[in-house]
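Co-fold these.
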Amino acid sequence: MNYFPMFADLRSRPVLVVGGGTVAERKIQSLLDAGAEVLLAARELTENLQTWAEEGRICRIAESFSDGLIRQAVLVIAATDDEELNRRVADAAERGNKLVNVVDRQELCSFIVPAVIDRSPVQIAVSSGGTSPVLARRLRLQIEQLVPQHIGLMAQIAGENRESVKRQFGSLPERRQFWEQLFAGRFQDYCTQNNRPQADLQLKAELAAKQTQQGFVTLVGAGPGDAGLLTIHALQAIQAADVVLYDALVGTDILCLIRKDAEKINVGKRAGGHKVRQEETNALLLEYAQKGCRVVRLKGGDPFVFGRGGEELQILAEAGIPFKIIPGITAAVGAAAYAGIPLTHRDYAQSVQFITGQCKADGSDVDWASFARSNQTLAVYMGTIKAENIAARLIRHGRAADTPCAVISNGTRQNQTVATGVLSDLQCLTANAATPALIIIGEVAALHHRLAWFQSENTAVAKAKAA
Ligand code: SAH
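Predicted complex below.
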């Protein structure tokens, strides 16, 4: 850690600014916002600075800088376009043991100023340690989009009620649970609407109810693999969870977004490699929710697409446990996009069917004639094992043997691979495919060769070999 992060209380504390141009003005504006007493040493002032000095908002103590001025200040900022002068200010501050910032000259600074996301009283500061202010500002923009505007109001009300909540709930875990539930419920909605009176009432009501905390389950779609494909709601739910029950399909990139102190339970595979039975997963969900935990059930892709999400929710509904659902990008949508295969296309496919390859051995549970119709795309989940069977039945029901096909393994992940061929070869295409793999059948699969854009590690290796 090159810099010690801190938030300084500058209210009524003197800060010396050397320089009276636009850069100095910007710095002074933030110092005034923070309530600092600004002492200015500058020969020429911008129009605004002049007005502020006349109004007494800042105090121009000198026209030119001299070492002695340093003594009066707790912090020093040099913002002139005179390199030599900036250096003199920095040296004098060093000698006088004052922290100094020289604008745009990191090597002369003993403190630097972060990019700030301001939701006062909440402030988030971002710094690249002086290596790249542009990068820090980019990151700030990204965080800016993630942090809701009303968070400031929430913090303000929370601050005012901190003591009464402390009195009511003796232990830290109890208090944490109270705040977490408050922030996730109606209170948040009222804050979003900037409805302070209702937000206050809601807090008081929840505090008065002193109810035993009720658990809550959020069924979250984690998407096909690339963590960037999570929705903002999904990210927020993952980070608020006390317990996360996740499937084998959810990768480490996403698991590392879970709060460090949350309990993580893999219900996809046990240590011995056996799958946890669905009934056990259901029982775990119930158990944690009934204990009052905020549970996230994290599933690959979308929870309602071949995800058994419906079954898990039925159990919760029967037990009277509240829940909500956050959809995810399903494998067919994600993998097709990253493979450059449009699922529909005006010239080739007017519809797309998402189907499962896990049908009965005799195929009697499937309407093969409808699957075999032309001008449509089939996206087959869990289809690699029965690929031969699926291809044979489709051809028998009239789909052309030379219909283009693609098998996308590890779609959207860094190790994505795409194998293409025709329907009569589907078995060969899937034989060595890594899992999870999705099969796409239809003319659109041939567009992969023209529209592939995603550079996975494997594309890079294949290109290097070819070269
Ligand atoms: N609920 C999930 C699907 C679960 S069924 C979703 O909406 O995506 C599991 C099947 O999904 C796998 O057998 C495979 O066919 C497909 N699948 C899931 N993730 C995949 C990925 N990253 N790449 C290719 N196929 C994937």
